[in-house]
Design brief:
With 161 residues, the chain is of the alpha+beta class. Helices cover 57% and strands 12% of the residues. It has one domain. It is elongated and about 95 Å long. About 9% of the residues have low confidence.
Length: 161
């Protein structure tokens, strides 16, 4: 019975002194992610080559892969939109085809291109968000640390992230 009451007392004291578990704020890296680009704290836009000077190597590799996926998504959606809109325009203003079979083949080709363009645009949406998420994560990356801290309430075990 004594052990159980001691455990309850320790849990209650630990729960009441939650400030002992607080390690303080984690300072940022001085980089900011806005509109698909990374900026320094002074507002200077970083290119892919200059970002290496501001990030650790692991973050830079993650940022670079995110930037590649992000750019691939932009290109995929642009090409898909051009193919879909161009095919739709070709369907609206068909050329003069004398045979019925040629007209059907033309419309099937146009319909296939419209579907392919729309599929490319739809496929680019997850790519866009994955690339954006990778770039944002690489800028706001803070490693998780488990450390002993000495706040005003005494010694505590803190998980900082």
């Amino acid at each position: 019975m004594g052990r159980l009451s001691m455990i309850i007392l320790l849990v209650a004291v630990t729960g009441l002194t939650a400030s002992a578990q607080y390690a303080g704020p984690v300072t940022g890296s001085g980089l900011d992610y806005r509109n698909g680009n990374v900026y320094t704290s002074e507002g200077v836009k970083l290119t892919l080559s200059t970002a290496a000077d501001y990030m650790p190597e692991e973050n830079y590799r993650y940022y670079r892969s995110g930037k590649k996926v992000f750019n691939a998504a932009i290109w995929t959606s642009s090409v898909g939109a051009v193919v879909a809109v161009g095919s739709f325009a070709l369907a609206c203003f068909p050329p003069e085809i004398s045979s019925q079979g040629g007209f059907i083949l033309h419309q099937l080709g146009v319909g296939g291109c419209i579907y392919a363009g729309c599929a490319a645009v739809l496929a680019s949406i997850p790519m866009y968000f994955v690339g954006m998420s990778r770039m944002k994560t690489s800028v706001n990356f803070h490693p998780v640390n488990l450390s002993f801290v000495t706040p005003s309430g005494g010694i505590g075990l803190a998980l900082t992230f």
